[in-house]
Amino acid sequence: MAWYDEAIFYHIYPLGLAGAPEHNPYAEPVPRLREIFPWIAHAKEIGCNAIYIGPLFESEGHGYETTDYKKLDGRLGTNEDLKEFVKLSHEQGIRVIFDGVFNHTGRNFFAMRDLREKREQSPYRDWYQNVNFWGNNEFNDGFSYDNWGGYNIMAKLNQRNPEVRDYVCDVIRFWVSEFDVDGIRLDAADVLDFEFMKALRHTANEVKPEFWLMGEVIHGDYTRWVNEGTLHSVTNYHLHKALYSGHNEHNYFEIAHTVKRLYAMGGNRPDGLKLYNFVDNHDVERIHTKLWNKAHFLPVHVLLYTLPGIPSIYYGSEFGIEGKKTYGTDAPLRPKLNLADFGDCLKENPCTKLIAALGRIRKEHPALSYGDYQELVLTNRQYAFARNGCGESIYVAVNNDDNGVTLRIPVREGGTYLGLLTGNRMEAADGWIEVRLSGCGGDVIALEGACVNGAEPVDLAAVKERPDEARKTPTEEVCREEEMISLREKKPGFVDRAASEGKPYDCMTIEELQEAILSKMEKNGPVTEQMLRSVRENNHQGSLLNWVRSFR
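Request: output the structure for the sequence above.
Response:
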C-alpha cells in the first residue's frame, strides 16, 4: 500500500488559476503562486489528499514549451515560492506531483538555443529528434526537426540519446532535493520512448520511497505503460469519455463495458491498474458543460469516486462551473478564479457539498481504494456494482433517468444497510436490499454497523436543481452533431492517404490522421456519429498516430 493507492487528487493549472499573462515577459518574477496557497486548505476541505499542479517551470507561453526545468516560471514567482507551496501542502497531509514536460522543449531552452546558433557544430545537435540541416521551418532556422503536435515551438527531444536521458533524470533528482516533490505526471507519455520511461522509473525508485509516475495517455492498451518497468498509472481517457457520453446518451452499458475492459487489463487484480480517473481537466471541456442534462453531475461524480481507480477533481469543477473550448485557445478551460468569490461553498454550493461528501466516504471506506469490482445491476438507465475488500462490501447504485426508481440489489450479509449520501436505511431480506434512487440520483451503501461515522446526507435535489439548466437543452450539441454530419457527408467516404497516396502517417496533419482513422473504421462497418465525434475531438497528434497504427 502506497500513498497514491488512497489518493484523491486536486488538479491545478497554475498559470490559469493565478491569472498569469499569456506570454512570458521574462521580467522580474511576480509571486502569483502565493495567491494559490489558500487553495491547498480548500483542497483538503473537500477531501483531497494530493495535488497535481503544472506546468510550473519557465516557459514561453502556456507552459508546455519549457525553457528552464530548474526555475519556476517567473510569471508565478521564484523557486522559494514553489518550495513553500510544497511545504504547506505536506504540512496539511497533502502530497504534490508536478507536470514533467520531457517529450519536448521550447525553442529558448539552452540546448535548442545553442543548436540554432552553432548548427552542425553544436554539441547538442543530437539532443533533438531528426534534425535535418537540409530543411527549414517557419522560423527560418535553416534546419528542421521533429516536434509535438505539428508545433515547432515544441521541439521533440531525442530520448534515445543517453545525454538527454541523464539530463532529465538529473532534473527529477533536482525537483526532489529542491522542492521535495512526491511524483510526476509525464506530459505526452503516449509518445515517449519506452526505454526512456524505464530510465525515469529507475530514477523514481531511487530518489524517494513511493515516488509516483503517472503518464498522459489517450488511447491504447494501458498495460503497455502501466507495469513494474515503466509507469505506476496513466490518465484514464477511456473512462472519461464513457462517463459523460454514457449519461448523455442514457447508456450505462458503455460505462460498464469500459470498466470491465479496463479491469481486465489489470489481470482482474482486486484493485485493477489504479488508473488516474477524471471527468475534466485543462485540455477538455468542463463536465458541467459536456453534460446535456446538468442533473447528471450527481451520478457522474458518484461513479468517479467509487469505480476502480484514483479520482481527480479539476480546480473549479467542484463548484459546477462551465468551460467550453473555443477555436484556437484553451483559455476558457483554464480560468483565473478567486476562492473568495465562491463564499462558504461547503455550506452554500450543493455541487461542492457533494464532492466533499464523496471524498469523506472514499476515505472512510478502504474497499473503494482496494476492493474488487463486481457488477450487480445493468440497464441503459440504472447501474449498480459492489466493491469488496478490506473486510467490507460497499454497494453503489446510480440512475440516469429523470424518474425515480427502486433497484433490487444482492448483498453478502444480512442486516441494516445505510445510504451514505441519502441517509436511507434498507433491511436485507433473503440476501437482497431495495435501493430507492431519485431521478438522476445515486447512493453509496454500506452495512450500518460498519459505518464508524454514519451518514451525512447531502441535499441531492439541490445538486440537480440548476436554474435554466436542469433539463436537457443540447442546442450546442445539436449544432455540433450537424457539423459532424456535414463533415461526414462532404464526400462518399473517408480517405486514408497512406493507402491511396503512399503518404507516411508521420508526415500527416491532424486532419489527415483523423481522416485515415475514420477510413479504417469505415471498412469495419458504418461510422456512427458517436465514433465520428470521438475522432474529431482528438487533436493530439501522437495519440492519433498510435490510434491509426493500432488497426490490423
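Residues 467-492 have pLDDT under 50 and may be disordered.
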